[in-house]
Amino acid sequence: MPNPLNIRSDAALDFLSLGALVHRLDPGVVPFRKATECRIHVSGGEYNCAANLADCFGLRTALASAMVDYPIGELIAERVRAMGVHAYYKKFLHNGATGPNMATVYSDRGYGVRPPVVFYNRANEAAAQLKPGDFDWHAIFAAGVRWFHSGGIFAALSATTGELIIEAMQAAKSAGAIVSFDLNYRQKLWNVWGGRDRAVDVMRRIVAHVDVLVGNEEDLQNALGIPGPEVAHASALNPTAFLAMIDAVRKSYPNIQAVATTLRAVHSANRHTWGAVGWLKGQSCVSPTCELDVLDRVGGGDGFGSGFFYGLLAGETLEQAVCLGWAHGALLTTFPGDTTMATLDQVRAFAKGGSSRIQR
């Protein structure tokens, strides 16, 4: 089976991620200013990948994160266990009034011509207080980890979270793990403590340790300062601009062995055209495109990343890995919440051109 990244096979964990756990309040199609009830989803870009890989793809996964000892923390921890993810927590005690807190994400789904609206309450967030030295990486990696992952949302939380990511990546590389990173540039988060210039400084130092990078051309420009076309003028489904930037990425970061991203044209809140593209050691592959009837778009990108990582971990070809990511991300938009409800059989069937005809 192909193994172009030389991923180790002998390890207690297939996948370990580092990031913040959050709870998302979801009023469905009703805007928050008129909402009377919400569903609660547990989320976090890095956690979503670990949860998807455990629940759908059957891998042994774990998460390093912050956890607060209060009812919201208990709710989140229960959902993490239910998805089959082992947890390494730095624990914080809530003072009963002001925190520290598990962050809240507010996100309605939009409908038709009305787009989803997302905003945060990350005041006194426990995960933002994580810093180098909070985890015993030597002990965590001692039994073997095949793949380590983190992302740009966690890096954006504070001046210490990016340094913790670098510390973890250095430990991962020393332990023989593949290292991935999702750029996930979020302007609202970076603007709180330094803006784009600070983001570029932090992200460049992180990406110097990365093997597999996830992010589109806009992420590459904003997070790494790599010149590229005006994103507003580029076709959302044309991979040419993205692939043209790979040479610049490799010139600055010769350690990068693979890059991948989704391609999405948004026609309305509920109708998207969906594709994906991947590059691996000089080879590139573009997925098919499909029309999505979107129930909940949050988590679709993490769904793609999860499937792509699984393909590489399972020894699939680049084409198969891209199509597995594309298929899983597409399926994830048909479920409520941020994490998967798909089965591996469903993912493989869709990746091969499956249809929505009833399965008997």
Attribute tags:
360 residues, alpha/beta, UDP-N-acetylmuramoyl-L-alanine:D-glutamate ligase, 10-stranded mixed β-sheet, 14 strands, 34% helix, globular, disordered C terminus
Low-confidence stretches: 356-360
CATH class group:
Alpha Beta
List how many beta strands DSSP finds: 14
- For CATH, the homologous superfamily is named as Ribokinase
Estimated helix fraction: 25-40%
Number of helices, counting only DSSP H or I runs of 4 residues or more: 12
Major beta sheet summary: 10 strands, mixed
Indicate the CATH topology: UDP-N-acetylmuramoyl-L-alanine:D-glutamate ligase
Mean pLDDT: 94
Strand portion, in percent? 15-25%
Q: From the alpha-carbon coordinates, what is the Rg to the nearest angstrom?
A: 19 Å
Shape: globular
The ordered string of helix (H) and strand (E) elements is EEEHEHEEEHEHHEHHEHHEEEEHHH
Give the number of domains: 1
How far apart the termini lie comes to: 32 Å
Which architecture per CATH?
3-Layer(aba) Sandwich
- How does the helix and strand content classify structurally? alpha/beta
Q: Can you describe this structure in just a few lines?
A:
The protein is of the alpha/beta class and 360 residues long. Helices cover 34% and strands 23% of the residues. It has 12 helices and 14 strands.
What does this structure look like?
It is a single chain. With 360 residues, the chain is of the alpha/beta class. The protein is built from twelve helices and 14 strands. The strands form two sheets. Strands 1, 4, 5, 8, 9, 10, 11, 12, 13 and 14 form a ten-stranded mixed beta sheet that branches. Helix 5 (161-174) packs parallel to helix 7 and helix 11 crosses helix 12. It starts with 14 loop residues before the first strand and ends in a 9-residue tail after the last helix. Residues 356-360 have low confidence and may be disordered.
